[in-house]
Amino acid sequence: MRIAIGADHAGYELKDKMAKRLAEAGHAVTDFGTHTTDSVDYPDFAAAVANAVRDGRSERGVVICGSGAGAVIAANKIKGVRALMGCDTYTAHQAVEHDDANVICFGSRTQGELVTYEILDAFMKAEFIQEERYVRRLNKVKALEAD
Question: Active-site positions?
C-alpha cells in the first residue's frame, strides 16, 4: 500500500520509526517531513499528507503531532479525507471498516510507542466493508462536504 506520513517537530522521531516500520512491512512510504526537532506548524504536515491521500498519490496517511488533536482537525479540513485519532485498536480498524477512514493521527506525547504501533497495525490491516449500510452512511458523510 502507498502511505503518506508526516509530523511536526513533536512527532518527528516517532514518524521516522513508523515510516521504517511501514516500509519493512512492504508499504511504499512517502515522508512529508519534518526532519528535525526545530519548531514547525502541524497544519502544514497534516495538509501535505491529507492532500496526497485526496489526490490518490497515497492510499492512506499517518500524521503525528504532540497531542494528535491538531493533526486530526487539520487533516479533516481536506475534502475527501476521513481522519481519526489513533487512540485504540478497535477504533482504528472499525473506522476503516465502517467509515472508510483513510488518515490516522497520533499524539507522540499521549501514549506509549508500542501501543501506537499496535494501533497503526490495526488501521493498516483493515479494509472498508462494502455492505449497503456502510456505503449508505459513507455517502451521507461525503454529502456533508458538498455543503
Answer: 65, 98
